[in-house]
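Retro notes - structure team

What went well: the batch runner handled both jobs without manual restarts.
What didn't: labels got mixed up in the shared folder, which is why I'm recording both outputs here explicitly, each with its sequence directly above its tokens.

Job 1
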Amino acid sequence: MVGKRLGRLVWHELVTPSVAMARTFYGELLGWKLRTVHVSPELSYQMIEVSGTPIGSIVESPSVPAGFWMGYTAVDDVDLTTTRVQGCGGRVVSAPQTVPSLGRFALIADPAGAPLGISDGRAEDVPAGRSCFCWDELIVPSAEDVIPFYAGLLGWEAEQYTSLASTWILHSGDEQVATVSEASVAPHWLSHVMIDDLKAALQRALRLGGQLRRDEHVLPGVGRFAVIADPTGASLALFEPKNLERDLR
């Protein structure tokens, strides 16, 4: 666990047409366990747990054409932050609401259209380690279209990443929180999960019906990652750090 992490991405949620698929795929791929949480007689969601610790959630939505992952960043006041979204150039997708055990949240979209959640409920509860989320990357056609938005709304500062072309590191104070990369694709956030053997994980993903979206890529001095898609199309990056035991300390 770590301390309070306002301004950081602290929660990740999979929206999927099939919870049953997610339970099988991610359970065998990453060892995740799902626990059903009932919000009301009509509404429930799945809490993702690693070694008994919640790390994210899954919501079943049969109407979505493909699954997708979405991150949530921690803010002090969801309602106040939401009122500032439009003035910063974004839009509010879903007005603030409260979910038991998760806190208050809202869904927004940046000027490029990439969705992001804001939440006040998990800011002091961010696990780290194997099979946990470790990084997030915003992929957009033009970084200059979105960097001012995140600076104005969340106070994130951008710094050019010298080792990779068309990539910027976003900072919240002294802490790195995400990267922005330019690519000619639909704008989206890509979540990364830490694993200890990328090659073995990719083999499991393919055997379980997943697809390889981006082949292994080495980050000198950092580690290596690849991007997969689960059987419903939700993209996820698998990251093997250069020194796993050191990075888990």
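Job 2
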Amino acid sequence: MGTEHYAVLGATIAAAYTVFGLTGFGAAMVAVPILVQFVPLQFVVPMLLLLDLVTTAMVGLRNRSSVSRSELLRLIPFMMVGVALGTTVLAKVESRWLLVALGLFVLVMTGRALVASSAPAEKAAKGWSVPAGVVGGVFSALFGTGGPIYTMYLSRRLPQIDEFRSTIAAVILVSALARLAAFAGSGLLQQTELLRSTAFALPFGLVGLAIGSRLRQRISAHAVRRYLLLFLCLSGLTVLCRGLLM
């Protein structure tokens, strides 16, 4: 990785974790579409996984007693299937098609969020844990962006905000640990410069997280969310075009 790429990496990670500190929105949704313009997706996703594990361990899970163990146990088996599938695809499929899939995924998720109704949705059936777990696991392994899938399911199963927040945090942590094992087995963690790049990016992530947490009380979360979604739409289009033109 060249010097200019390290500069882009540091700035992107700082911005991504600042947004995460502000809104709780997944840092990977911000960082991946930018970094894949300069670094292979197969390198970016494992690096962000290592960063997420460190930051999750430092922040810690709060209100563990509020975790819905029944929902967690319902999702985990299908999540493991999805992680295994996604890891296989990430290790073997040509980058251009992965970039096309990433661009489409970002556009669909941000478009859905922009037009979503504020009216409360009906409670989802337990059976939706199957597609939510598998699809969330696949996208977590492929792009580090399975959080929105889990959120769509759990937000319609757990109306109590504390229970929802604690459970989604637990799901993301379990997903990260599963991906760590899968990536280690597939060789994705043995890439040259992966640990060096992660160590370089970590301080930027921690600084961004601290800045975002401090700004949370000063900036409208609604305004940040709208601008962020518009930015992600642009990023999704850029990644999609890059994949199609490779």
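One thing worth noting from job 2: The mean pLDDT is 84.
We'll revisit the folder naming next retro.
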